[in-house]
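Listing S7. Sequence submitted for prediction.
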Amino acid sequence: MNLYEFKIFVAENKKWFEGVNPETEEELSNYEQQLGFLLPESLKWLLSSHGYSSSCGIDNLEESIQKTLELRESIKLPNNILVINDWGDAGIVFSIENEIIWASTADIYNLIEGQALPKEVDRFENYPSWVLERLENEQEESEY
């Protein structure tokens, strides 16, 4: 899904993306400087135009940046990885370049040691694909 298609997708599912605390361009630029790489355009657009929602796929970008920087220091997390979410349940969602990966915490340690990720980790081509999965999850949970 490209950015144009993603914007249409969000518009078609607007009620699920009505969020709070939108990010400013200045904040997003600051985060990119701290990380040393550019954030996906789709992530920047969603968080700056709609803010945080249960379907946006990330709880708090500032906290994600802080966690990423902490892990770079403590466990030598590679500089091309962004921690998207660490829900404290032995799983971690992270981005390598634009691919989003949902794996166990142990898998990130193996990755740091140069091992390949197991085939059973959940992989999403890009941020919009991850958001689509989160939206489907939210819709399923709302049915109960």
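Caption to Listing S7: primary sequence and predicted structure tokens for the chain studied. The first strand starts at residue 81 and ends at 85. Helices lie at 3-12, 25-35, 41-49, 61-74, 105-112, 127-142.
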